[in-house]
Amino acid sequence: MTTPADPPAGAPPIALSPEEYERVQASPEFQELRRRFRTFAFPMTGAFLAWYLLYVLLSTYAVDFMSTPVWGNVNVGLLLGLGQFVSTFLITWLYVRHANRSLDPAADRIRDEMERGEI
């Protein structure tokens, strides 16, 4: 049972001023959280885009290679295309693991410190 003082589910428990949010954003803890996110997200995004571009370029300019049969009617292009789906799921799994281990605990600490007024 909630009391009138309890915030609605999902709402922040306290309202912070823009200055307080700016102070949190400038804190070393928040900067470290941003660094952890960026050191994973940017390289992974670049690698995936390069892999996707390679697939598109091979499909356009290396038709003979992409149509090379592997077994039966399955060719290299089909395998690389299916590899796009596999790599998408792999990247998603890696990000969730990274977030659970590295990002979420740090974000929870920052939120708790914000709510207590320590940052």
From TrEMBL:
Keywords: Membrane, Transmembrane, Transmembrane helix. It comes from the Bacteria. InterPro entries: DUF485, MFS_trans_sf. Residues 1-11 have a biased composition (Pro residues). Residues 1-22 are annotated as: Disordered. It holds the Pfam family DUF485. The chain crosses the membrane at residues 40-62, 74-96. The keyword Ribosomal protein does not apply. This is DUF485 domain-containing protein. It comes from Beutenbergia cavernae (strain ATCC BAA-8 / DSM 12333 / CCUG 43141 / JCM 11478 / NBRC 16432 / NCIMB 13614 / HKI 0122).
